[in-house]
Amino acid sequence: MSKAASSPTARLLQSSRLFSLPRPLPPPLLETLTAGGRFRASDTATAPYPTHQAIATTPTSLARGDWGLKRALPAKATRHQTTPHVRIVAQDTPEHITDFASASDHTQTVQKWLEMGVPIVKKQPTRTSYSNSNRKPPTTVFSADDSTDPANPSASRWKFDSPWIAGMQSGEFETYLEKVVSGKKKKAAWKNFLAEAMVEDRLATKRREAQANGEPLSWAAAEEMRPSLWPTAEEVDKFQKELRDNHAVDNLSSELTRLISSFLDAPGLSSTAVANPGKTQDMFNLLNDLDTDDQFADSAPPSTHPAAGLSHLQTNAIMENHPLYGPQAHRAPVLSRVVRPRSGAGSKEHVAKLGVAGIVTNDPVSSNATSGFGSRPGQQKYDPDYMANQIDIDLAGGNKMWVHPRTATIDEKGRIRLEVSRANNEAIAVKTGNVQHIHEQRAAADRPMSSPRMPPPGNPGNAKFGFSLPDRRQPMRSQPRPPRSPPRARSLHEENESEKRFRDLMDKGGKQ
Amino acid sequence: MSLEYALKRLAIRPSTVCTQCRRMFASSANRSAQSATGAFAAVLQSNRDQDTAHRAPRTRGLAASTTRSAGNPSKGIELGRSMVQEIAAGQQAKRDAALADLQRSYTRQDLERQAVRKWKVGDVYSPSDLSGYEQAKWKRISRKPYPTRKTKGDVMDQLGMNPINEYKNFSIMSEYVSNMGRIQHRKETGLRPVNQRRMAKAIRRAIGVGLMPSTYRHPEIIKGTLETGRRF
Q1: A175 close contact with B: CB closer than 8 A
Q2: Does residue B159 share a domain with residue B81?
């Protein structure tokens, strides 16, 4: 139904908040239940993904409390928010109120997430055994190469008609077999499906023969031939028997498996396993393929699109261009919060938990490589191991760590699994503006023999600084080195020294 | 621990160890750790003496060692001096930390105990999730709610079991009776009407044939509960 065709009233209603707000998703389970049936949870905690639509309003309407809803929202609760976004829990209740809550938690998270520029990649196999030696580089979920692959039509899909059979309990599976699969209609459809598969098979043979004779079969001729190739019921039964017999030998890589999964529209098994029926290769290879090729083969099917609408970036191979120092080898690091250090409250964990842009992830370095067990290092030194080890009670703002966000995947529960690495020291220096020591080191390296050690220009070691701005680096080098301040929390909108200098330069240039 | 021992273990040894340096290594830091009042007294004392008695011997000692090493420039002296400085700095840091702990009204353990929530990968948080109000909610332990048909569906249907056939399985039957042996209501069990009737019949049958007590749970179940401390 198009909007233009409907009546003015219908159009008004369709565009109103009353009708345009989508139904909320079921609430996600925050805590997994233990065997004892006890759990800790909070009903007001931020969910791992938003379940309600967040709505905003114009400043003028906000002042009046007008959110396009049945009644105005109280200005006291919304007017003084930095980000006035609300989610509507109920448009109207028996108590004659509009139930709403702030949605800033998720809108701010999205804002921070977008600033990081993380691409979402396909899920990597979880196994880290020897069979993973041919581990592929991460590929984006938007890559087009899979969707054009006719041999594996299900590879780029994430939504299937069939329920997740592997996740069914035995009773559920019995019910599914009884109610869905073994119905009369479904059986007839299966026979029809087999007959169609046979026709395609026979047509392919005809085409091959015609090709061998030198006169390729035209599309019209093939269509004409189609009805004559339709098999009888006995032939279909015979074909089915053959498939079953082959399945006993080939197991999961058999033709029958492929046909059934495409008939039920279930997530398929790997393309390589299906493409080589009858060839029982090395079992490890097969298992490996089952794990790597199809993302959804052995885990639950995803509940969202693999990118979850969070990012459309296809790569993180981006070189950032700093306004003063030129192209950088590393992207600007992000200051993350150590939400749970390795040791604390009697428990000792393998890795610390970091909060990067409000999303919890694992510290990439485990406790094996620790060195920060001593006392607090000097104020000047930033030590990520020390930050990850335990809470520093004297550190204002809590433990923080610089990280580079790399890639992310969305798991089957819709949670973001962010992969980070610890930040490069030089990248931290550039980010915080404490670059004096880098200049000094470079000058010291250049002094004895000037050019041969220098990498060619345009490389990370010898960045092209451009010529549109006056080169202010020389006076900087002659200055005494300023005392370095300890790492501190820096909000996203705060300027650092170099940015300030850059702005000053631009101001001066504008005046001239 | 005296530095003399440490220096004696070095391959390259200075001819003599500055005896004045020893005083600060044999300071009362270790003894003071034995009691809180001792620690406090030591901290106060050390603080009082910091500028006068502590700094002076250190500079004097260092000066002495440098003058000595000037005549005989050996690496051992340098190493020793750096060690002296390191240990002194370490002790100073320890003293500072002890003083700071005394001045503070809370310890690290207090803070760690407040951060109750066990963060999992993929959790999203906003500043309010780090607040004490929110963390206090994670402190409470809740019991698993009974699976209702709305949330989880009929358990017996899911597992493809007929309760009537399970009347001899007292551990299943015990899950569907209360502490006092009463058959649970269907809003607690979450079974659909047919299965609830079957379950009730199975429980009555189990009690009737003497497999299960009628006024308490099966003793084996109670025994297991007592052993593991797990409640139903």
Answers
A1: yes
A2: no
Of A41, A44, A339, nearest to B142 by CB-CB distance is A41
Model confidence pLDDT, tens digit, residues B129-171? 999 999 998 888 776 655 555 556 788 988 889 999 999 999 9
Residues B84 and B21 in one domain: yes
Residues A225 and A108 in one domain: no
Last-in-domain residue among A88, A116, A144: A116
CB atoms < 10 A from the CB of B9, how many?
8
Instruction: Residue A510: count other Cβ atoms within 10 Å of its Cβ.
Output: 7
Distance (Å, whole) CA B14 – CA A326: 52
Is residue A16 in a domain? yes
**In this structure, is residue A356 part of a structural domain?**
yes
Alpha-carbon gap: A417 to the closest alpha carbon of chain B (Å): 5
Nearest-CA distance from A23 to chain B in Å? Answer: 18
Judge whether A46 and A103 are in contact, CB under 8 Å.
no
- B209: domain range? 155-228
**Residue A375 in contact with partner chain B when CB distance is under 8 A:** yes
Angle in degrees, 0-180, between the axes of helices A184-213 and A255-264, rounded to the nearest 10: 120
| Domain membership flag for residue B16 | yes
Q: Note whether B128 contacts A: Cβ–Cβ < 8 A.
A: yes
For B130, nearest residue in chain A (alpha carbons) = A339
pLDDT in single tens digits along all 512 residues of chain A: 455 667 888 888 888 888 889 999 988 877 766 655 667 788 889 999 999 999 999 999 999 999 999 999 998 888 888 899 999 999 999 999 999 999 999 999 999 999 999 999 887 665 544 544 556 677 888 866 554 444 555 456 677 788 888 778 888 888 888 888 888 899 999 999 999 999 988 999 988 888 888 888 888 888 888 888 888 999 999 999 999 999 888 777 788 888 888 888 877 654 444 444 333 334 444 444 443 334 444 467 788 888 899 989 988 888 999 998 999 999 999 999 999 998 876 677 788 999 999 999 999 987 654 444 444 544 557 888 888 888 888 888 899 999 999 999 998 888 999 999 999 999 999 999 988 888 888 888 876 555 556 677 777 777 776 666 666 666 544 455 555 554 444 444 445 566 666 666 666 554 44
Q: Which residues touch A130 (CB under 8 Å, ≥6 apart)?
A: none
* Domain-embedded: residue B181: yes
| Any domain includes B199 | yes
Domain identity same for A140 and A112: no
Given a contact cutoff of 8 angstroms between Cβ atoms, the answer to whether B163 and B170 are in contact is no
Q: Are residues B161 and B82 in the same domain?
A: no
pLDDT(B118) > 70: yes
What number of H helices and E strands is found in chain B? 13, 1
Domain count, chain B: 2
A250 shares its domain with A329: no
From A62, A81, A116, the end of a domain falls on A116
Nearest to A391 among B111, B119, B128 (CB): B111
Residue B131 lies in a domain: no
A307 part of a folded domain: no
Contact status of A342 with chain B (Cβ, < 8 Å)? no
* Contacts with B62 (C-beta within 8 Å, 6 or more apart), sequence order: B81, B84
Amino acid type, A101: A
Q: Which two tokens stand for residue B82?
A: 């750096």
Contact A344 B129 (CB under 8 A): no
What totals of helices (H) and strands (E) does chain A contain, helices first?
Answer: 17, 13
Neighbours of B161 (CB within 10 A): 17
Question: For residue A437, what are the domain limits?
Answer: 321-511
Q: How many domains, in total, are found in chain A?
A: 3
Residues B9 and B80 in one domain: yes
DSSP, res A168: -
